[in-house]
Amino acid sequence: MDGENNIPKFYVIxxxxxxxxxxxxxxxxxxxxxxNKLILVNPCKLDDECYARAMHAQNLVDNAELFSSFKEAxxxxxxxxxxxxxxxxxxxxxxxxxxxxxxxxxKIFTLDGKVGLVFGREDYGxxxxxxxxxxxxxxxxxxxxYPSMNLSHAVALVLYSLFVKKQVQIEEKRxxxxxxxxxxxxxxSEILNEINYPNHKKEKTEIMFKRIMGRAxxxxxxxHTLMGVFSKVLNKIKK
Length: 239
What we know:
With 239 residues, the protein is α/β, with parallel strands linked by helices. It is built from ten helices and seven strands.
């Protein structure tokens, strides 16, 4: 997910993970959703279970950046998102006022630079001072009966949400703009003129075509295909 225009660079940060298997499972989830920067803070041993659970994402484990402290690991990042299973609905308790995962996905792509997604220890999560140093606290909605998630599952859910949002943004960017739409409508109007389409029907038909294209929201590839067809039709008629 890195290296694309106007997309922040995401870093998955695991703070003092205690089990190699979880690290490997996180690496696999990262590969599933096109994230490739892993930071480990004072991790456990990267053992055989770690590499076994990483499957075809073992390179992410090998290329992970290792740090001995949270402060050192995050000093070069522009924006930090802490994750926790504990939040507060009290507006006066700002430390644990959390965004939900949908809100994060909607807002995070407006940022530029390096964004750290911070996940805490399997047994007690992030310390208050670590949360305090982050810009946003994220809470994944879970059952009140069992709110705490497995580390790798929590990472996978967050990365999935960001991946889906990114795909939506890419699709939106593929939709044609004002200039392309005007050209398309102009070609359609010229075709109507060339086939001597009745004047009293022409305006309504042009509006109908505009509404059809508006609902369809054609991509740039679809636009160029239509324009190619319309161009050949006009050339054929004029000959």
